[in-house]
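Dear support,

I submitted the protein below through the web form. The confirmation email said the job was done, but the results page showed an empty box. After a refresh the structure appeared. I'm attaching both so you can tell me whether what I see now is the final result or a partial one.
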Amino acid sequence: MIDTLKQDIRDYLEKTLEARFQQVIPVVVEEPKKADQGDLSVPVFSIVKELRQPLPLITQLVKQLLLEGELSTMIDHIDVMGGFVNVHFDKKAMADQIIANFTRDLLNNQLGSSNEGVGKTIVMDYSSPNIAKTFSIGHLRSTIIGHAIGNLLEKCGYHVVRINHLGDWGTQFGKIIYAYLHYGDPAKVEANPIEELVKLYVDFHEREKQDPNLEVEARAVFKGLEDRNPQYLALWEKFREVSLQEYMKIYDLLGVRFDSYAGEASYVDKTDAIIEELTAKGLLVEDQGAMIVDLGDIAPALIQKSDGTTLYFTRELAALFFRKREYDFDKVLYVVGNEQKLHFEQLRRVVDKMGYDFPEDIIHVNFGLVLQDGKKMSTRKGKIVKLIDVLEEAISMSLSYIGDKNPDLENKEEIAKKIGTSAIIFNDLKNYRVNDFEFNLDDMVNFNGQTGPYLQYTSVRITSILATSPIDSSRINEDVFLDEVAFDMLKEISLYQDTISRAAREFAPSILAKYLLHLASLFNSYYGKERIVVEDSMERNAKFLLLFMVRAVLDDGMKLLGMQVIEKM
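What the results page shows now:
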């Protein structure tokens, strides 16, 4: 609501000043650095500069205009401090408006929603693991950051198309198929497909050190795969199917969903058209037998190998143009690590050189590394860190905590699953995505501090309080809302929609995560100093209504981040 009032004041002053002085005068409205200086402040220096009139005259003019405007009923008083006109809103009027807005939005199932994206389509490419390989901790960030951003965008009215662009094509499959046919054990692969396929891939590279000719053999197999060799194609389809089955276990546990699992292979038959168009437009250049697009000051885009096989970049281009035709997107987001910055710059440059008008709509939503002890968390004693193992460990730790604190709790295993997975999700999302972050399970699965379990426990605590008595919202002591912490909670609740909008615009779930932590902290401060379950029914109704609002926002926000909401723990 504060942001809405800020915009309303800005619009009103700009419109009024333009009408009076017959010129456009930009107005700044901001929140004061100190809370005791007011709720909003209008620095008038830019107005003084435009009108070339004395500062005291302008400050009094702005003050008078505000007191005469439609928002005057919301204003308690206005102070002038040098070049700042500081507005103090009437707490009771604000509280009434915040509660009315919240009630309206909740009844209409629009809590935190906006219409800014209505009529617009955003295609999202995220998660995208390589088939026949373990779903590792390295895939975690793309998966849950992409999922949360998709939720935020949908909350703002966008039509979001979620694509899992599986890495299911390329020379590595020539290597895996070659290894499987020459020294693989079909029974072992059948029993434990992903682990055995990874072993075959590693084994191939070990053997290649002794016999460099194996690389040539593998490339020949991949060329056969591209030429639709029936045996190779059948194996590839099987490897893809068993991989996706394994990955779905992860996605189900995380609550992640996709509209499409069309991987690289889906676009192989569309690469010829890309090559033909690049040729027709004079963009292809031969370089040591391969075909490239020269991009001048950055590395060239490699389009076709000397043996005629396609490359990842070519398939990426084919996928991009297919998505533009199929979905007519307004933006396409690639939720991929920082290290792929060059790739997406090349993609934009090639699209621009081809004469299309949407290179700026290709957005790389980059993110940092998962670290352990300051190092990239990709290996542990030479082995890949499996995400499923990490999730199961977090769930086990949560179950142990529940067993100690509430051994008689029903459905402990299911609740522990929700706590453990949510802990890992929140720990990632509370960090600004571009930054690297340290992975520490003990810190994540902690019911104190800035953690997912802390948010879940706050919601559970409110639920247990509200269960003691029904709320009669027609009999409320509104003075309860004038308490400093209670009013701060109301103001924070009023910022929910604006927070979601900003998080969606910046593709930054951390903005919402930090907001939820602050709201939970305000509640716990209030809970620590106030008796909530009191005898006086009107005071109790007011406090319960406030808690009901806090819980509704916390629960809705956690769901947007991909967390699980629970009622007991």
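Response: this is the final, complete result; the empty box was a page-load delay. The longest strand covers residues 75-81.
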